[in-house]
Write a structure and sequence with these properties.
This protein has about 425 residues and is α+β, with helices and mostly antiparallel strands. Helices cover about 20% and strands about 10% of the residues. Helix 2 (about 70-80) crosses helix 4 (about 110-125). It is elongated, with a radius of gyration of 44 Å.
Length: about 425
């Protein structure tokens, strides 16, 4: 016997009819002006198997078309996006969110129990104001340290890219640049992320993406307390150009009295000094990997004391830690000579010679100092009776040390004598 559409079998009063989907910022796309098509009762929900209104849109240029996968009732029960099934508050999978909040999934799997549970949840959703999740999720703590560390603060639009072109992988794609699919090498088929199931993601079991994030959370670094109890300063990095002194003070004043706030704009960092060590420890615990100002995640570390800033002697720091030498560096230079004998002018390490005249030669005069004229062109080498005549230069033996003497300038070289010099 055929049944009509108005019979209780179809339960048409529970079919969903909505005007706009419940989406996250990533699935909605970066374009504020999108064209979205709506198909009333277009598909059945992949969780509760009830018909619902399907929305379809393109999130941006060179992106693939996306559509809603689950109904709004299933979305509100888990507080997730209708398309990607990621948490709307943290942007994380349901399994990671439930682990961080210590919430146990209670959605039944069988068809009859699932329908009964869904009707009760719809009644609870209708009685609520719509600002808080329902069920155990609404009674869970508001935040978790692990979730704040793993939460995504900015949309990840690469998730909306087209799929890989299977024809291009086989070398048969003839569209070229007009192909709407990606021409990239596919991922490893043995990769766990390549095997995902929408029901496992919704129920929070065997989700490979969630397992990857939970493994990352277990190995995330922690901010250890410094041993020096006098350190009450926190280092805040990654400020950017739009974070001001008042914004930092508005966040950190709740942990205790602030002594000073120093912003180094050139390095885009700040140093916040608290009046007590307890206030600094509380601020570091509550802000490490959780501090977000103006949509920017800031890096929080402990400051260093003045005594531990880079004073090293003989490869040993002040804390007693011996530093290993860097391989490949040249050895230490020899010490400079201290005695008068070592401080000679033998810069090229030449062997000593018997000719002391060569070693005693002076250096050339600096620029601007006049040199003695060559023989035959200078003043006469004998005493004249003219009182206006220039004085005769002293002999070589009587010249002061340091003057320049060249053999070609010796007046005795050409055999000239003072007694015969006056003749033609």
């Amino acid at each position: 016997m055929a049944t009509s559409l108005g019979s209780n079998t179809y339960n048409r009063q529970n079919w969903e009819d909505s005007d706009f989907p419940i989406l996250c910022q990533t699935c909605l796309g970066e374009n504020p002006y999108i064209r979205m098509t709506k198909e009333k009762f277009g598909k059945e929900c992949k969780i509760c198997a009830r018909p619902f209104t399907v929305f379809r849109w393109c999130p941006g240029v060179r992106m693939r078309f996306k559509k809603t996968e689950v109904c709004q009732t299933c979305s509100k029960m888990k507080n997730v996006c209708q398309t990607c099934l990621l948490d709307l508050e943290y942007g994380l999978p349901i399994q990671v969110r439930d682990t961080g909040l210590s919430v146990k999934d209670e959605v039944p799997r069988s068809d009859v129990n699932k329908e009964y549970y869904t009707q009760n949840m719809e009644r609870e959703i209708a009685n609520s104001d719509g600002t808080r999740p329902v069920g155990l999720l609404g009674k869970a703590p508001s935040s978790s340290d692990m979730l704040l560390k793993l939460a995504r603060t900015t949309p990840y639009y690469k998730r909306n890219r087209p799929h890989i072109c299977s024809f291009w992988v086989k070398g048969e794609c003839k569209r070229g640049e007009e192909c709407p699919y990606r021409h990239e090498k596919p991922t490893d088929p043995d990769d766990p992320l390549a095997d995902q199931n929408i029901k496992d993601r919704y129920y929070g079991i065997n989700d490979p993406v969630a397992n990857k994030l939970l493994t990352r959370a277990s190995s995330m670094p922690r901010l250890d307390l410094p041993e020096d109890k006098s350190i009450t300063t926190l280092y805040i990095g990654g400020l950017g150009e739009d974070v001001t002194d008042s914004e930092l003070r508005n966040h950190f004043y709740q942990f205790g009295e602030i002594r000073t706030i120093t912003i180094v704009q050139r390095q885009q960092c700040a140093f916040i000094q608290f009046a007590t060590r307890q206030a600094a420890e509380t601020a570091a615990e509550k802000s490490f990997n959780k501090l977000i100002i103006n949509g920017r995640r800031l890096n929080v570390k402990w400051g260093r004391s003045q005594a531990a800033r880079g004073k090293e002697k003989d490869g040993v720091t002040e804390s007693g830690i011996r530093l290993d030498p860097v391989p490949g560096l040249p050895g230490a230079l020899p010490p400079p000579p201290v005695s008068d004998e070592d401080a000679s002018n033998n810069y090229f390490n030449l062997p000593p010679t018997s000719s002391h005249a060569v070693m005693n030669l002076g250096l050339p005069p600096p620029p601007g100092v006049a040199m003695p004229p060559p023989p035959g062109f200078g003043p006469p080498m004998f005493h004249t009776m003219d009182p206006m005549a220039p004085p005769m230069p002293p002999p070589m033996a009587m010249r002061p040390p340091g003057q320049v003497h060249y053999p070609s300038q010796d007046p005795q070289r050409m055999g000239a004598h003072a007694s015969r010099h006056g003749g033609p």
